[in-house]
Amino acid sequence: MVRMNDCECSQTPLIQLSPFIHQVGGHSSMFQYDKNTVCKLLAPAEYDFYQSIPDTLKPFAPEFRGCVTVQYYEDELGYIKLFARPQTNSLENHPSSNEQDQSSTADKSVQLRCSKDGHVDYSNSLGIDTVNYEKGKPSMVLINPWSLQLCKKQAEKLHRQLIGDENVTITQKYILLENVTARFHKPCILDLKMGKRQYTDVDSDKKRQSKIQKCELSTSSKLGVRLCGMQVYQADSDRYIFTDKYRGRMLTVEEFHSSLRQYFSNGSTQRFDVLPEIIKRLESLHVTINSLLKYRFYSGSLLIVYDGSLQSNLIDVRMIDFANTILGTATNDEVSNPHVGPDKGYLYGLDCLISFFRGILKDDEHKCEMISIDDLEK
């Protein structure tokens, strides 16, 4: 990234990025480019996947919208800013000033600042959710602390690279993706790591063993799915309950099932009304994955979103994180090529997820029937 002086910042047609406050999982920070678009650090394999994504999978993945070069800037007061310079193929996505003004107040007021001693922190009270956040413990927050923490770590890393040489140039490319949460007033988000196997053929032995261990010690090995992050809007407090990936790794099968039920609890009622459409969408995705021979979506995640606003029954289901997705060779020999047929691990996770959701819906319908019978007996 590039550290610019005030003159360069004011004269160059750049777009100021803000933290993407609805990021509930992942290990690298994402930023909001405009109301409908987010920036994610470019991984060559993921970029290649989006260039050749199967048509049948496009409805289940965020729309790819090009690339940008991101630049780092610290002003005289120490405020840290990130600016994106659109590439030619991304100019159509250049937001107008009106579109940028539509960003939420929370996005604009979340500001990082570097003190004279080099310490990076949030400049106002919105960052307090990060200070009070304890890894592995659910928390009640205004903005989920995961996104704020990742942004802070990114800023600290960049600042360290600039110490002693303010003219250093470090370039980083980001891909532009559809902001899946943009349509939702109060997005309730479930980020799930899918599949029974997370490592790829090219991973180092150390990374492979780490991923195998995470699967064996979590619900991934038993269910083909584990919780990577969750935020649920609470109507009674106008805040979110946030759960991180560390808590997700510790869940037993029963606790995972309970977490899925909690995902539909808004503090005053159960939002099981959105379940039928979510199940329908998951079943459609299952058919699509089953038709994609030789694809393996290792370490891929599934994003489920519904609107916490009681006036809306809007939902969405998307596959995300394709940096470890591979396409097998043409041979159909399972001995020389283990990537024959559809991704059975991913399908197994979908089967378990659909079964859990159907069970939750059936239990709710049974309770409603019991209530009706009791009313009749009265």
UniProtKB/TrEMBL annotation:
One of its GO terms (cellular component) is nucleus. It is an enzyme of class 2 (transferase). Transmembrane segments: none annotated. Keywords: Kinase, Transferase. GO terms for molecular function: inositol hexakisphosphate kinase activity. Residues 90-110 are annotated as: Disordered. The keyword Kinase applies. Residues 90-108 have a biased composition (Polar residues). The keyword Transferase applies. GO terms for biological process: inositol phosphate biosynthetic process; phosphatidylinositol phosphate biosynthetic process. It comes from the Eukaryota. Its EC number is 2.7.-.-. InterPro entries: IPK (IPR005522), IPK_sf (IPR038286). Belongs to the inositol phosphokinase (IPK) family. This is Kinase. It comes from Adineta ricciae (Rotifer).
